[in-house]
Amino acid sequence: MSPKERENGRDAASAEELHRQAAALNHLLGEIGLSTSEQTTWWNLLAQPELRDRTPTQAWLAGDTAAVKALVERWYEASKLAADRASGIPELLVTLRQKIAELDRRLSGSSIHRSA
To answer: Which of 12, 59, 73, 104 is deepest in the core (most CB within 10 A)?
Structure first.
C-alpha cells in the first residue's frame, strides 16, 4: 500500500470517527430535549459565545471538535442535574404530569405524537 493510500485510509477513518462523535452529540441533544429540527437549528444557526461566536457546525468544521463536545456535555450535565433536582419536588412532578396529560388531550386528534 502506498503512503498516499494509507493517508487516504486514515482520512476516511478520521472522517468516520468524527461522524460517529457528531451522532453521539446529537443523541445527547435529544436526551436534553431537542427535537431533530431543533438540533439542526442548534448546529447550523445558533452562534455560541463558548465557540467564539461561531455555530457548532462552523467550529466543528474548523477542527474545534473538543470545544463543541465540551459545550454539549456541559449542557447535558446541567440538564441532568436540573432534572434530578426537579424529581425531588413532588409538587413540580404533579404539575408536570398534569401539563403532559393536558397536552395529550389536546393532541389526541392530531398527527403530532409525543415520543416520550
So the answer is: 59
